[in-house]
Specification:
Elements lengths: L2 E5 L2 E5 L8 E8 L5 E7 L2 E4 L35 H4 L15 H10 L6 H5 L27 E2 L5 E2 L4 E9 L4 E8 L6 E6 L9 E3 L2
Antiparallel strand pairs: 1-2, 2-10, 3-4, 4-5, 5-11, 6-7, 8-9, 9-10
Length: 210
C-alpha cells in the first residue's frame, strides 16, 4: 500500500524497498565557483555530502533565479535554493562529470541505505539537536550529512526550515511539477514527492563510478 502525505504544497509517496549499504568518505569535488564539497561513495555511486551552492552553470554562465537571493539564518544549513528550470538547463549546474540525480538515481541511493522506509536515518546529519533524532544510533552512517534546510515557495518565502530537507531530481512529473525527495524530523523514511517547478529546492550532485 502507498501512503500519500501532504507537506504544504509538496506531496510525498512512500513505498517499501530493502537493500544494504556500502559507503565510505573518499574525496572532494569543486564547482565552477571554486566551492569544495566532500564526497561519499554509496554502492557504485558518489554523492556530494553538502548541498550545491554555485551561482553559475558549469560553462560559466550566471544562473538567473530569484531563489538564489534567499538565505536561511542557520550557518549549518549550507546550500542554495534553485527552481527546477536550473536543474533542467543543458548548461549543467553540476561540475563536469556530475549531474542532478534522476528519480531512478534516488531510488538507487535509497536501496543502498536499506530502502526508502528507513534510509533517512543514515542520511541525516548526526550533529546533536539538528534532527531531534538522537535515539537513532545510525544517524549519518552513510556520510550524506543532510540538514533540514526547508524549501522556498513560489512566492519566495522560506518554509519548513528546521523541519524538512528537500532535494530536486532531474525527472519531471508533468508540465508544472517535478519529482523530488524529502526527509523530516523524527521520521526515518525518505519521501518521494511532486513539487511545483517554481519552488526552490536544494540540489545534490552525483555520479556513478566503477
Amino acid at each position: 500500500m502507498k501512503t500519500v502525505i501532504q507537506t504544504l504544497n509538496l506531496f510525498f509517496v512512500v513505498s517499501l524497498m530493502t537493500n544494504v549499504v556500502l559507503s565510505q568518505r573518499i574525496k572532494e569535488v569543486r564547482d565552477i565557483d571554486g566551492n569544495n564539497y566532500s564526497v561519499v561513495r554509496i554502492g557504485k555511486s558518489e554523492w556530494m555530502s553538502q548541498n550545491l551552492r554555485t551561482l553559475h552553470f558549469n560553462n560559466g554562465d550566471s544562473i538567473i533565479d530569484e531563489h538564489l537571493k534567499v538565505n536561511n539564518a542557520n550557518p549549518l544549513y549550507s546550500g542554495k535554493y534553485y527552481s527546477w528550470s536550473v536543474v533542467n538547463d543543458k548548461r549543467n549546474v553540476c561540475p563536469t562529470g556530475w549531474s542532478v540525480p534522476s528519480d531512478q538515481d534516488w531510488y538507487y541511493l535509497e536501496n543502498k541505505l536499506g530502502g526508502e522506509d528507513i534510509a533517512a536515518i543514515e542520511m541525516k546529519s548526526d550533529i546533536k539537536g539538528v534532527w531531534d533524532d538522537e535515539d537513532f544510533f545510525d544517524l549519518n552512517a552513510s556520510g550524506f550529512s543532510a540538514f533540514p534546510i526547508g524549501y522556498v515557495t513560489e512566492k519566495g518565502k522560506l518554509s519548513n526550515v528546521g523541519i524538512h530537507a528537500y532535494w530536486w531530481s532531474s525527472t519531471q512529473q508533468n508540465e508544472k511539477q517535478a519529482i523530488g525527495r524529502a526527509i523530516g524530523i523524527n521520521e526515518d523514511n525518505v519521501y518521494k514527492g511532486y513539487a511545483s517547478k517554481e519552488d526552490g529546492l536544494t540540489i545534490r550532485c552525483f555520479r556513478y563510478v566503477k
